[in-house]
């Protein structure tokens, strides 16, 4: 393995004491041997720093701990961490501090990249809590052109990129971008950079589950998951990158579809019985501004009739199903009612 290419594994962290040890252990268990591990501490105050230093002391020839001079935003910290990789590394594997890798992760990804020198990004299936996430290439294909990978997303809704933890990147591609991630696209900066890289690189895929991620982990996407990320993500990626990979006719078709799905979602939210928070609308307004897309209430008014119709239709079917269940088995239909539960308890 001494002749195998060097892989820089990178974990930027801030106050992740509960998960950091498990993350580091997963790197130490890799079956691939020629790696360095760069842990970047973003001014942690919860004991994470001591955890990182303890592992550095136990494996000093493999692990480096770097401390930021001042507190950075998450994207800034990730960008800084990527500047710390060895100049000799051929590949870089990001592992977010609350995630971990299966033992064969680095080896399997490097094998695909080595077999296909034009591949700049390698992905694999990702276990998110107890659910396997990410779309994959058609089995057993290990690679496609970057153009084809992006067209699969726009035309067939196949999202291949996942999170930073689910990807292996060529260090050459990282060194060519300063900064690597564009802050204006946060919290989806990692997806946007993939579309940029695939203009010049091909895409590789390992047909295995190689990484684990926590869904509700207190990260920057956790508070906004309820805001309707998928419709916004699709529209933002299309507006920012669609013209690079689609014909004019394809782009207009996809844009019309994406706008319809997105603004219908916003209109339904506006019509919901619960009052959406100020943060909800700020998230979407700022997100659209990041792709120079003007937000206006006229866009929602256009979709108001359909939103109301779907709301009435959904209520009708929900009511009908409830009545059918009540007629077929009244006891079962009412079993969840608080008064019935109280009577059962007596």
Helix and strand arrangement:
Elements: E1 7-13, H1 17-28, E2 35-41, H2 48-58, E3 63-67, H3 74-82, E4 91-94, E5 100-101, H4 105-115, E6 119-128, E7 131-133, E8 143-144, H5 146-156, E9 167-170, H6 171-175, H7 189-197, E10 202-213, H8 229-245, H9 248-271, H10 278-290, H11 297-301, H12 304-328, H13 330-334, H14 338-345
Parallel strand pairs: 1-2, 1-4, 2-3, 6-10
Antiparallel strand pairs: 4-9, 5-10, 6-7, 6-9, 8-10
What does this protein look like?
The protein is α/β, with parallel strands linked by helices and about 350 residues long. It has 2 domains: about 5-220, Alpha-Beta Complex (Spore Coat Polysaccharide Biosynthesis Protein SpsA, Chain A), CATH 3.90.550; about 225-305. The chain is about 50% helix and about 15% strand. Strands 1, 2, 3, 4, 5, 6, 7, 8, 9 and 10 form a 10-stranded mixed β-sheet that branches. Helix 1 (about 15-30) links the parallel strand 1 (about 5-15) and strand 2. The protein starts with 6 loop residues before the first strand and ends with a helix.
Question: What keyword list fits this structure?
Answer:
single chain, ten-stranded mixed sheet, alpha/beta, 2 domains, 346 residues, 14 helices, Spore Coat Polysaccharide Biosynthesis Protein SpsA, Chain A
């Amino acid at each position: 393995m001494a002749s195998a290419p060097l892989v820089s594994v990178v974990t930027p962290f801030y106050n992740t004491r509960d998960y950091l040890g498990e993350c580091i252990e997963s790197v130490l268990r890799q079956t691939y041997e020629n790696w360095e591990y760069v842990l970047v501490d973003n001014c942690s105050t919860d004991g994470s720093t001591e955890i990182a230093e303890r592992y550095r002391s136990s494996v000093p020839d493999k692990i480096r701990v770097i401390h930021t001079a001042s507190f950075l935003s998450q994207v800034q910290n990730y960008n800084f961490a990527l500047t710390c990789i060895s100049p000799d590394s051929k590949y870089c594997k990001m592992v977010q501090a609350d995630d971990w890798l299966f033992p064969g992760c680095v080896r399997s990804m490097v094998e695909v990249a080595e077999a296909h020198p034009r591949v700049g990004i390698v992905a694999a299936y990702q276990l998110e809590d107890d659910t396997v996430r990410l779309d994959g290439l058609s089995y057993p294909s290990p690679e496609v052109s970057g153009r084809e990978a992006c067209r699969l997303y726009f035309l067939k809704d196949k999202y291949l990129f996942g999170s930073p933890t689910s990807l292996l990147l060529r260090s050459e591609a990282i060194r060519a971008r300063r900064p690597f991630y564009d802050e204006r696209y946060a919290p989806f900066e990692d997806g946007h950079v993939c579309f940029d890289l695939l203009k010049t690189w091909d895409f590789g895929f390992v047909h295995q589950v190689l990484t684990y991620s926590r869904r509700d982990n207190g990260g920057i996407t956790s508070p906004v998951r309820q805001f309707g990320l998928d419709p916004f993500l699709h529209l933002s990626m299309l507006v920012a990158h669609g013209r690079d990979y689609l014909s004019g006719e394809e782009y207009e078709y996809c844009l019309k579809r994406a706008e319809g799905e997105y603004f219908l979602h916003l209109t339904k939210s506006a019509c919901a019985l619960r009052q959406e928070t100020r943060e909800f609308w700020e998230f979407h307004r700022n997100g659209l501004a990041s792709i120079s897309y003007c937000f206006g209430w006229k866009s929602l008014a256009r979709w108001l009739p359909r939103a109301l119709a779907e709301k009435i239709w959904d209520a009708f079917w929900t009511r009908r199903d409830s009545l059918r269940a009540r007629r077929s088995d009244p006891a079962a239909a009412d079993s969840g009612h608080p008064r019935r539960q109280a009577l059962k308890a007596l």
